[in-house]
Specification:
eight-stranded parallel beta barrel, binds zinc ion, 36 strands, binds acetamide, alpha/beta, seven-stranded mixed β-sheet
């Protein structure tokens, strides 16, 4: 410590220069710019006490920049000082400092993990300044805000090789994420060798065929898939590889739902006889583990092997999307509910998770599960992974349970990140880079003490629509950069543009590593804004706005197309095509937006109940933005309401004549989306007294296949209120029976 002070006191001149930010992702907590610079030496001397393993990693990454020598006589050193931990330190075990001065690079940390994080920062500095062969003198003091900074990978819907999984882990390491959540079992495949139950991989690791294309198309490829799984030896290799990079691997074994692959191998663990087959389509399936003694013995034996392979503190036991259909009709399940005085099947889900938790705790580990493990009461020591929104995390934290935040609308990287028309087929949803970057993992509802229970943040990559590793790369980059900075705690959503410029610089690194990534941030994005004539379409791009060109006649934008200057009035039904040009070259994909306007377009609208967070896209205005919902873009153009009715009131601004009201609703029973039960149209001139002018029932809605056009006769009113009734509880015989149905609605128009 003393030596450090002597050497550096001269250099602490407190000189700051306010150039553009260093190109570091995640950006550190504190950067101080100093005088002078570290000129790349021919030989970098590595001090004797550098942590070995982490330094080997550094040498591999920096080879080509210079030669290395293990101590000896030279001017330029890489040095390391292990700090003593003090009980009242504000700093966590991932804390580090990195000081660059003309003759030395000095890293200090409490742990090898801290050292490894400093090494990542150093590598990024070498990336940025490599061409100039000198790095400005500076001092970085850094540590993450959150201890759980995770990425998940689903290897069940599509399988990725050990090599690919290792590359994935490398990406996490490069951007200072520290948790890899490995989703190893699901309906479509069991991917981990369990010695005691060989049929899990013999039978459960392959399927007859796979769904292809959009879910609504219901098409299959006819090609057998698998057997694909990881042997225990391979898993040990991956765990070691991750450990070397200070990344914890959290395995997930799904229960009680998402169990079809396991049940195909061991049908005796289900409520009914079977036989079962690993699923060939995506979705949620009714056949789940039956909570019999035999099942618990099986799961405990599986978990024994899992816990031997994975040293993580947490074991993920799934817990999501478990339909109660079979349990309702199963004598054993009903008996168990009675004997244990459980309220219902949700109580049985809680009983299931409690038992598994007890077992995992008895082995000195903890469970974490998707937020449905809150159903019927949370197990005493369980942590919650909040995905259906943020409420699971809030409820957990308020009851002093740890939570990891991974709400779909910000953290699901299987969603589209640009206009779906310009992107490979994806699950749905719309989660562009700026949306991820805007996420704050601490819900506003929590006080400071409760906030301590938020362990951190994670993004999930479900792979139904992700066929190969190139596409994995495409879906995670550049969104992983945003996640990284959110988890580190240095994201500043109001400075998104600055972040975006670092992202664009970082693309060079991905290019050099031959890593695929989405270029959607170059795309022109559009936003409908209300104006006095109805609505206008505002175009923007992350780059120079003068580079946007557009057409209104359906042709592709070219260099001689109209230059965008002001929002384009949407006055009739039209298609706006736009693209971004730089140096006379087309740089982006062409964005195309079709409009279908009506008397409601751009008008003020209010909803009595808000849509579910994951399907709330542009809020109520989505329903009058002149963009009609496309079945293939669930999260983008539709609003989704689970168990709730839609009650929308549109203010037409003045008394307006109309004779037809229209709206759309969807049906996709496999995803629990049901058509509306009924609809009512009301009118008013004072927004107080409403008169019912028309009502339609289920039959009319079904006959119209969800595209509802209601003739209301000649009307004149200032306000239209549309009430669309949710199907309610999903009836028996359907996927998700007994759960609340989803109602998806878009574009309420009047002609
Ligand atoms: C999930 O997305 N079913 C956790
Ligand atoms: Zn049963």
């Amino acid at each position: 410590m003393l030596r450090f002070l002597l050497i550096f006191s001269l250099l602490f001149s407190g000189l700051f220069y306010s150039q553009s930010k260093l190109n570091l992702i995640p950006f550190p907590q504190k950067v101080e710019y100093l005088k002078g610079e570290f000129v790349f030496p021919e030989v970098l001397i590595l001090d004797e006490n550098l942590p070995k393993q982490e330094t080997e990693y550094l040498k591999k990454k920096l080879k080509g920049n210079f030669k290395f020598q293990n101590s000896g006589k030279s001017e330029s050193h890489l040095m390391y000082i292990l700090l003593q931990e003090s009980a009242n330190s504000e700093q966590n075990k991932e804390f580090y400092t990195l000081e660059i001065s003309p003759k030395q690079i000095l890293i200090k940390s409490y742990t090898k993990q801290g050292y490894f994080l400093a090494v990542q920062t150093l590598i990024q500095l070498f990336e940025e300044f490599g061409n100039n062969k000198k790095i400005p003198s500076l001092k970085i003091e850094d540590q993450p805000k959150f201890s759980w900074r995770g990425m998940h990978l689903d290897v069940c819907r599509h399988f990725f090789t050990v090599d690919e999984v290792k590359q994935y882990i490398d990406y996490l390491a490069m951007y200072k994420l520290n948790t890899f959540h490995w989703h190893l079992t699901d309906d479509q495949g069991w991917r981990i060798e369990i010695k005691k139950y060989p049929k899990l991989t013999q039978i459960g690791s392959k399927r007859k065929e796979s769904m292809i294309g959009a879910y609504v198309d219901n098409k299959f490829d006819g090609k057998p898939y698998g057997p694909y799984f990881y042997t225990q030896e391979q898993i040990k290799g991956v765990v070691k590889y991750a450990q070397d990079r200070h990344i914890t691997v959290v395995p997930e074994i799904e229960m009680p739902g998402h169990a079809l692959a396991a049940l195909s191998a061991y049908p005796e663990l289900a409520c009914t006889k079977g036989p079962f087959e690993p699923a060939t389509k995506w979705g949620v399936f009714d056949d789940v583990f039956c909570p019999k003694e035999e099942t618990f013995t099986f799961l405990e034996n599986v978990l024994d092997e899992v816990m031997t392979l994975f040293p993580s503190q947490y074991i993920h036991i799934g817990g999501d999307e478990c339909p109660k259909t079979r349990w309702k009709e199963c004598a054993h399940c009903q008996d168990l509910i009675r004997k244990n005085n459980l309220k219902d099947e949700h109580g049985l889900q809680s009983y299931f998770i409690h038992r598994i938790e007890k077992y995992v705790n008895s082995k000195g580990r903890k469970i974490i599960g998707w937020d449905e493990i809150l159903e019927g009461g949370l197990a005493p020591n369980a942590a919650v992974m909040s995905w259906t929104g943020v409420n699971g995390g809030i409820e957990a934290a308020k009851s002093k349970h740890f939570a990891v935040m991974t709400p779909g609308s910000y953290c699901y990287f299987d969603h589209y990140q640009g206009d779906p028309a310009t992107e490979p087929n994806a699950f749905g949803g719309f989660t562009p880079l700026d949306k991820v970057y805007s996420y704050n993992p601490i819900p506003g509802e929590l006080n400071e003490e409760q906030a301590q229970y938020i362990l951190g943040v994670q993004a999930n990559l479900w792979t139904e629509y992700i066929l190969d590793f190139k596409q994995v790369q495409y879906m995670i980059f550049p969104r992983l950069f945003a996640l990284s900075e959110v988890g580190w705690g240095t994201s500043e959503p109001k400075n998104y543009k600055e972040f975006e410029s670092r992202v664009i610089n970082e693309f060079k690194v991905l290019d050099r590593l031959n890593v695929n990534y989405a270029k959607s941030i170059y795309n022109v994005s559009g936003k409908v804004i209300p104006d006095k004539n109805g609505a206008s379409y505002e175009l923007s791009t992350s780059q120079n706005p003068d580079g946007i060109r557009y057409t209104l006649d359906g042709t592709e934008p070219a260099m001689n197309s109209q230059i965008y200057q002001n929002p384009i009035p949407v006055s009739k039904s039209m298609t706006i095509k736009s693209a971004y040009f730089e140096n006379r070259q087309l740089k982006s994909a062409v964005s195309s937006q079709q409009f279908t306007t009506s008397k409601t377009t751009g008008k003020s609208i209010s909803l009595e109940q808000q849509p579910s967070e994951n399907y709330s896209f542009g809020g109520a205005f989505t329903l009058v933005d002149g963009i009609v919902g496309n079945v293939k873009q669930l999260g983008k153009t539709w609003l989704g309401f689970q168990g709730k009715d839609v009650v929308a009131t549109i203010d037409l601004g003045e008394k307006t004549k109309f004779s037809e009201v229209y709206f759309n609703t969807l049906e996709n029973k496999g995803s629990w989306i049901h058509l509306a039960k009924s609809a009512q149209i009301f009118i008013s001139d004072d927004n107080k007294n409403f008169k019912l002018i028309k009502e339609i029932g289920k039959e009319e809605i079904q006959n119209a296949k969800g595209k509802i056009k209601i003739n209301v006769g000649n009307q004149s009113a200032k306000y239209i209120k549309v009430k669309i009734e949710n199907a309610g509880i999903i009836p028996a015989g359907n996927p998700g029976a007994d759960s609340k149905a989803w109602l998806f609605v878009d574009e309420i128009g009047a002609l």
